[in-house]
Design brief:
Elements: H1 11-24, H2 29-40, H3 49-60, H4 63-80, H5 88-93, H6 101-110, H7 116-127, H8 131-135, H9 147-172
Helix pairs in contact: 1-4, 2-3, 2-9, 3-9, 4-6, 4-9, 6-9, 7-9
């Protein structure tokens, strides 16, 4: 007998799963906060990792970000297990240079906080600081073709969110964002 209950997605469950799967793949919100700090400390010398992590959590609270994280991690795991169809299996497993879908998925995250995210993403994708070094290491047998770009995109979006909020604080003159 077919299930007749209507489909209802539990947003808290999606958020919990997103954080859980990031952790299972070796990425914490602190790792991502360190990337945000790397991007923003030159502009905000008093910036703390705690403040960066608050922005990371805000970005991870967005459904479109959660969707990208879960989709990318699933594709990486399927590639690790050899379960993608050829030639996609080899392209994802080996992070083929001309396979740009991993960046396209990451750009859906970058878009959440405006065009400044593109600049941040391009920079961090080239520099590969912090956790991105580990995620780009192909010698450990893990596949992070999607996750490395997703983590960079989350950090870029969080840095963009922070830049927008800091500008708003400055314009308001009271040190407090309007929302």
């Amino acid at each position: 007998m077919a299930d007749t209950k209507p489909y209802v997605l539990n947003s808290r469950e999606v958020q919990r799963a997103t954080l859980e799967w990031l952790g299972k793949r070796g990425v914490t919100t602190r790792h991502i906060a360190e990337l945000v700090h790397y991007l923003q400390a030159p502009y905000f010398p008093d910036l703390t990792l705690e403040e960066c992590e608050q922005h990371v959590l805000a970005v991870l609270g967005k459904r479109e970000v959660q969707n990208a994280v879960l989709t990318g991690i699933q594709l990486d795991i399927l590639a690790e297990e050899g379960k993608l169809m050829p030639p996609l299996q080899d392209m994802v497993k080996h992070d083929e240079a001309l396979y740009g879908i991993d960046e396209v998925l990451a750009l859906s995250i970058v878009n959440v906080y405006g065009s400044i995210g593109f600049t941040n993403f391009g920079y961090i994708d080239k520099q590969k600081p912090g956790i991105l070094v580990k995620l780009n290491d192909k010698s450990d047998g893990e596949t992070h073709t999607f996750l490395d770009d997703i983590v960079g995109a989350i950090a870029s979006a969080a840095a963009s969110r922070m830049a927008h909020r800091k500008q708003e604080e400055k314009e308001n003159g009271n040190g407090l964002p309007s929302d």
